[in-house]
Amino acid sequence: MKHLSCSASTLRRADLTTRVSVAAKAGFAGIGLRVSDYLDADLADGQIRDLLDEHGLRVLELEHNWDWAVGEDPVEETMFHLAETIGVRHLNVPMFEAHPHADLVEPFGALCDRAAEHGVLVGFEFLPYSHVRTLGQAWDVVAAADRPNGGITLDLWHWFRSGATPDDLAGIPASVITTVQLCDVLPQPEPDLTEEARHRRLLPGHGAGDTLGVLGALRDHGVAAPMSVEVFSDDLDARPTEDTARLAFGAGADVLDRAGFAAPSWTTNLEEGR
Question: Which part of the chain is the Xylose isomerase-like TIM barrel domain (predicted)?
Answer without folding.
Answer: 22-243
